[in-house]
Amino acid sequence: MSASASATASDVERLQGPLLRAQGLVKGFGAVPALNRIDLEARPGRVTGFIGPNGAGKSTTLRILTGLIRADGGTATIDGMPYAALECPPRVLGVVGDLAGAHPGMTARGHLQTQAAMIRASDDRVEQVLDETGLRSAARRRVRGFSTGMRQRLALATALLGEPAGLILDEPTNGLDPSGTIWLRRRLRAFADAGGTVLVASHVLTDLQQMIDDVVIIEGGRSLWSGSLSDFTDNHASLEEAYLSMIEKEMA
User: What are the ABC transporter domain coordinates in residue numbering (predicted)?
Assistant: First the structure.
């Protein structure tokens, strides 16, 4: 991945702290509490894994961070501002979530050109992300014929159009074969190594362990742990073992 797809060194110096931050997030849906003072940080140059069981509040937290829903309490900021306050959000934060976002009748290039026009990105940038995500040979193909792996590449290409400083990905390896998983892991690692901020929510702990630097763990809408992967897995054989040990203690 080229440096143009990531935060520059000057961007990192300017940020002086987490690009993505949630503090004391509270959210309920009717009488059902979803989040109870969730805290989260993701920093430049690092890949942060966001972990928790189904129903823990991961997707709700990400939806608040990306401006899709409002919190009942607490703050969620991107580069110090709420997502909705950013002048052009996709130029600060790329989001990889719903793989059905591209119309099946459009070509990969046509989809990217449409998205680029919305954020005033150039046609040259479209061609760059086609190359960066390995979609050059499929640029003229209709999205309806894409495999899950190719759709994931297209979703990432879309997220990279605005040359954002950060990426958020929700369960990005779902449906990917081993080669697709390895490809995605390498792309995200390269993005972070070039100074970008990456936040990945996933249940697949074996995949996460091979790409992340930091871990944020939530359960039942509550924050359980936040810190480096090495600190969290200290005295444990793997991320999965350390995670299960923590959850078992919480349930005891």
Answer: 20-245
Both structure tokens of 181: 């998983």
Q: Per this entry, what is the length of the chain?
A: 252
In this prediction, residues 121-146 reach a mean pLDDT of: 95
pLDDT tens digits, residue range 8-56?
A: 444 444 445 899 999 999 999 999 999 999 999 999 999 999 999 888 9
Non-local (6+) Cβ contacts of 252 within 8 A are none
Mean pLDDT, the chain, rounded, equals: 90
Please tell me the distance from the alpha carbon of residue 120 to that of residue 117, in angstroms, as a whole number.
Answer: 5
Helix axes 148-160, 178-193, angle to 10 degrees: 10
Q: What are phi and psi of 218, to 5 degrees?
A: -130, 155
What's the mean pLDDT in 53-70? Answer: 94
| 4 pLDDT more than 70 | no
Q: Are 52 and 58 in contact (CB under 8 A)?
A: yes
CATH 3.40.50.300 fits 3-58+70-79+178-251, yes or no: yes
DSSP state of 232: H
Burial of 182 (0-12, 13-18, 19+ CB in 10 A): middle
Q: What are φ and ψ of residue 50, in 5° steps?
A: -110, 110
Q: Using CA atoms, how far apart are residues 87 and 207, in angstroms rounded to an integer?
A: 34
Residues 26 and 181: their CA atoms lie apart, in Å, by 33
Q: Is 9 strand, coil or helix?
A: helix
Q: Residue 75: which H helix or E strand, with range? A: strand 73-78
Spell out the residues 6+ positions from residue 18 whose beta carbon is closer than 8 angstroms to its own: 41, 42, 43, 197
